[in-house]
Amino acid sequence: MFELADNRSPNSMASKMRSSRHAAFCNLLREVRRPTKALDVGGSEEYWRSMGFLHDEEVELTIVNTLQPQGSIPRLRWILADARDMSGIADQEYDVVFCNSMLEHVGALDDQEMAASEIRRVARRYFVQTPNRWFPVEPHSLFPFFQFLPAVVRAWLLRTIRLGWLERAKSMKEARSTVSSIRLLDRKELGRLFPEAILVSERFVGLSKSIIACGGWEVQDVLRAFAGKVPRPGGFKVDDGYRPQPDPGPRGAGGARR
77: part of which helix (H) or strand (E)? Predict the structure, then answer.
């Protein structure tokens, strides 16, 4: 399982699927005016170096992260900020936001709502990917159905053994903190966070492994972007008809909506 999911290896299924996802993003980026200002929320230099993206002189890339940069790369800007509060960035300052497997790490649903609101505010377009909660293998622990276990059981397991990418915790306090730092989203929740987006399912053996919210592009652009060759048993499915339903609110007496 770890070999399949090890994105450090260029030959792993995870790396091949990530490269296909990035190729789709690059296809969408070609639809954006040049020069382009792109903002990666929660990213790293290593990701962009591994994708061979830093040679495009017509794209000005900025990374927002709460961590200090690992090194110095020409033409790459860095902003120390939290995804939930990017108040140092003006409205629509960027042409596009890229966000890869970050949203599940910002906290509770309220925190995710704040981050999504900021992403929609600072850019005209966005490409936001997050693991699908309903995929059987939890992507951090690589443990089947780990996300559905009670939090106390997840913490106990993490205190007992190393799980996938998660190191064995030194204490129950540390284990509980790690468990609470990950909140996976499902398709409906992501759609409500990005109501104008076109949602794309990234599939593995026919199951939705992750979900991508593409905002600011036409349906035809998204369909073309994801039409490229994908390594089997992976694939993409663009849902051009999906629109999330508004939350009807709590029920009153007799089941009527308030």
Answer: strand 76-80
Task: Determine the Cα–Cα distance for residues 18 and 7; give it in Å rounded to an integer.
Answer: 8
Asked if residue 246 has pLDDT above 60, the reply is no
Contact 203, 212 (CB under 8 A): no
Encode burial over 34-65: b for 16+ CB neighbours within 10 A, e otherwise: eebbbbbbbbebebbebeebeebeebbbbbbb
pLDDT at 183 over 90: yes
pLDDT at 198: 96
Domain ranges in the chain? 2-139+183-243, 141-181
Average pLDDT, the chain: 87
Tokens of 30: 């070609």
**Pairwise CA distance, residues 2 & 239, whole Å:** 30
Residue 12's pLDDT is 67
- End-to-end, the C-alpha distance of the chain in Å comes to 48
Q: Give the CATH architecture of domain 2-139+183-243.
A: 3-Layer(aba) Sandwich (3.40)
pTM for this predicted structure? 0.87
172-180 and 151-160 are packed helices; what angle lies between their axes, rounded to 10 degrees?
A: 130
At 235, list the tokens. 């694939």
Kindly report the number of other CB atoms within 10 A of residue 222's CB atom: 26
